[in-house]
Every structure is written in structure tokens, then in C-alpha cells.
Design brief:
Elements lengths: L6 E5 L4 H10 L5 E6 L11 E5 L5 H15 L4 E4 L14 H26 L4 E6 L12 H20 L4 E6 L3 E2 L3 H5 L9 E2 L1 H13 L4 E2 L3 H12 L3 H19 L4
Parallel strand pairs: 1-2, 1-4, 2-3, 4-5, 5-6, 6-9, 7-8
Helix pairs in contact: 1-6, 2-3, 3-4
């Protein structure tokens, strides 16, 4: 898809991958409406309009689409990037704790896709999900987060067999990214290996859009890891055991059991 002069709806762009992605997209003279919990922190640009939006709420997403249409007149590309993680050991029943991460990381992207299809009604449109390498490799400490990203992965696989030709869905699988993401997940959260910069991820996302890719794996190391695991099935299990040790160490340092 040609990015020049496109109208884009993007979520979660005040920091991390979303911020880097916004910086990449404005190079193409795009018009961008950003939905974010902290719109004041979104980079200022004459072609960017930031709106406060909590993607865990249907009414906020509906409002965001309505405002995007009033500002841009159309939405060519929708990028559901907003998401977060908990780093934890599950120990107590907390429905709201579970529901919030599922709502933000899984329900919202799928609903954004439905809204985009409903809005364009047969017109060519492009949807991007920011999933995670943890969709393919769940790690200790991230049980809920990994589950939400695996759900997106499974949805996308099935949807690509169901969809009409006018809608294109691309899924991105970043590895650990050097952003505020892990600080948000929990104080002192260890960053899994390997890690990469948000700028690298943003560059690969834009390249994926331009080449009409369905799946984007920004890390070559992670792709090699998946190939190795097919040959040596316990390779990623061994990697998860290392991350389990990190979790236990973090729990001990945090005074948790």
C-alpha cells in the first residue's frame, strides 16, 4: 500500500513503539488521528490530532472513530497499537484485573477492525495489530499478557481465511522493546532477551505496510529462535526456564512469594 497522503487512525502513540511509529508515518505526509490515554504527550505536528481515548471502553472507541471521520473524512489505515502488560505471579481472584488487559489487548483491536470494515463497506482498507513475540513464546510472569497476544494471533489466522479481498490485516510480533513498557508492567521488571529499539520496530511496521505483508517479525534473532525450536523442541522450554528464574528472583526482591 502507498502511504503518501493516507488518513491513519493510530492508538497508543505517546511513548514506545507508537511514538516511534508516529514519527515514521508523518514522513509520508499522512494525516493521523491518535487515540491515547495521555494525548498531551503525543508529538505535536500540523498533520496529527491527538484525542483522549481509553480503548478498554466501547464508547471511547466509537467516539474516536466519529472524531477521526470529522477530522479526516475517512480512515484508510487503522493501527491498533495500544496495549500493556502485567509482570506478576497470579495468586488471587480478580475479575477486573483480568478483564482490563483482555479488553485493551484483545477485544479493542478486534473491535477496531470491525469498525473499520463497517465504516469502509467494501472500500480498500488496511488494519494493523501490534501483537507480541509472546504470542508465539509465552513467558513466565506474563501469563495474562501472553494469552491476550496469542488470542490476537489465533484470531488473525482464522480471519485471514474469512475476510473479503478489500480488507488487509497485518500482525506485528515485536520482541522485548526498550521502552517504558516494562516499567509499566512492574517496578524492576527484568527485560527478556533479545531486545530491540522502538525505532527498529516502527521501521519494520512501515516496511510491512508498504509491502502488504500479513505478518511482520521485526527481530531476526526471534525468527531464528522459532526455527531452532522446530528442530530442537525443548529449546524454547529451556529459555522459558531462564525467565522463570528471573521471575522468582524478582518476586523475592519485591518481597513477594
Amino acid at each position: 500500500m502507498d502511504l503518501y497522503n493516507k488518513c491513519i487512525l493510530l492508538t497508543g502513540a505517546s511513548s514506545g513503539i507508537g511514538k516511534a511509529l508516529l514519527e515514521e508515518l508523518i514522513k509520508y505526509n499522512t494525516t493521523i488521528v491518535v487515540g491515547d490515554l495521555n494525548p498531551e504527550a503525543v508529538a505535536r505536528n500540523k498533520n496529527v490530532k491527538a484525542i483522549r481515548c481509553d480503548v478498554s471502553k466501547q464508547k471511547d472507541i466509537d467516539m474516536l472513530f466519529k472524531k477521526a471521520l470529522s477530522i479526516m473524512g475517512r480512515v484508510d489505515i487503522c493501527i491498533a497499537n495500544a496495549g500493556f502488560a502485567y509482570y506478576e505471579k497470579l495468586q488471587k481472584a480478580d475479575y477486573n484485573h483480568i478483564h482490563r488487559i483482555v479488553a485493551v489487548n484483545y477485544i479493542a483491536p478486534v473491535y477496531f477492525l470491525e469498525k473499520l470494515m463497517e465504516l469502509n463497506k467494501g472500500r480498500k482498507s488496511y488494519m494493523v495489530f501490534t501483537a507480541s513475540a509472546m504470542a508465539k513464546l509465552p513467558l513466565p510472569g506474563y501469563a495474562l499478557y501472553s494469552a491476550t497476544k496469542a488470542a490476537l494471533d489465533g484470531f488473525a489466522y482464522s480471519f485471514n481465511f474469512e475476510k473479503d479481498a478489500h480488507i488487509h490485516l497485518m500482525v506485528v510480533y515485536p520482541i522485548a522493546t526498550k521502552t517504558e513498557f516494562f516499567k509499566t508492567a512492574g517496578d524492576g521488571t527484568p527485560v527478556p532477551f533479545p531486545a530491540q529499539t522502538p525505532q527498529k520496530v516502527a521501521h519494520e511496521v512501515v516496511k510491512g505496510i508498504l509491502k502488504n505483508k500479513r505478518y511482520v517479525f521485526p527481530s531476526k534473532i526471534f525468527r531464528v529462535m522459532m526455527v531452532i525450536n522446530r528442530i530442537i523442541p525443548f529449546a524454547l522450554w529451556s529459555y522459558a526456564k531462564v525467565e522463570q528464574y528471573k521471575l522468582k528472583k524478582w518476586l523475592s526482591a519485591s518481597g513477594l512469594k
